[in-house]
Specification:
heterodimer; A: alpha+beta; 4-stranded antiparallel beta sheet; 4 strands; B: mainly alpha; YefM-like fold; 2 domains; elongated
Chain lengths: ~100, ~160
């Protein structure tokens, strides 16, 4: 999670509803490269959507129920984070927008 | 000239046994009806008409935006319904127009506006994200390590 959005992440359950926030978490934890069962997602366009780190995906834009928009990149075979060197999936949340369109 | 119908009927067919045939041809993709004075009318599925209309509107919008760019303008107002294109630089706009050309080509061939709608939605979504200063700063910056672990949301 980008540090700029840690505060908003904490507020997420109260802003979009706990079930919607958990649904998003479960989606990116299990199937970050697929469309979500609830809400919509699309791969962002242009040069700024390119992977920011080796092994990562292009930026995915996810619209979650409850008026939340979250941009993330994921690496299905990362060796970083608190799970250590064993290969595992990592999702980096770049930005969260809870404002109305 | 574009051919959108093949079966040809007369006005009198609508009152006779050919009425079902006329409707069947229309549902299959298009039926041409000649009125008593020779005036041509056509019946096509509504979804097909809407798709063709949308494809034409988007193609015109793209041409107008390209004309504005050709004049050196990057003002959102000059891009008409593609005003959000102003959020992108020249390289990204070129990529957008290349993708839109492909989408229009497929949509025209299949009479299904889906590829065009998807193309526009994805680019418009990206433009909206870039219009927010904080999100733009992060989305356009190179990858850094300013990230922290987060947990599953709980009450």
């Amino acid at each position: 999670m980008h540090r700029q959005f840690l505060g908003i992440w904490t507020e997420l359950p109260s802003r979009v509803g706990l079930a919607n926030a958990q649904q998003f978490w479960d989606h990116v934890a299990m199937t970050p490269g697929q469309p979500p069962k609830v809400g919509t997602s699309s791969v962002m366009k242009g040069k700024y959507a390119a992977p920011k780190w080796p092994g990562y995906s292009k930026t995915v834009h996810c619209e979650i129920t409850g008026a939340g928009r979250i941009d993330y990149q994921f690496n299905p075979a990362a060796t970083e984070g608190r799970r250590g060197k064993a290969t595992h999936g990592v999702v980096r949340i770049l930005a969260i927008d809870l404002g109305s369109h | 000239m574009c051919e959108i119908t093949s079966a040809v009927f007369q006005a009198s067919d609508l009152a006779g046994a050919k009425r079902r045939e006329f409707l069947g041809a229309a549902r299959e993709g298009g039926a041409l009806l000649r009125d008593t004075d020779g005036f041509a009318l056509t019946m096509v599925p509504l979804a097909q008409l809407e798709a063709v209309t949308e494809i034409a509107q988007v193609a015109v919008a793209a041409l107008l935006a390209l004309a504005a760019l050709g004049r050196g303008s990057t003002r959102p107002a000059d891009f008409g319904q593609l005003a959000w294109l102003a959020a992108f630089d020249e390289d990204d706009r070129a990529e957008f127009f290349a993708e839109l050309r492909d989408a229009l080509s497929v949509a025209e061939a299949t009479r299904d506006a889906g590829p065009v709608e998807t193309c526009l939605r994805e680019w418009r979504t990206t433009a909206r994200a870039l219009s927010d200063p904080l999100r733009r700063a992060i989305l356009t910056a190179p990858g850094d390590d300013d990230y922290a672990e987060a947990d599953r949301p709980e009450e």
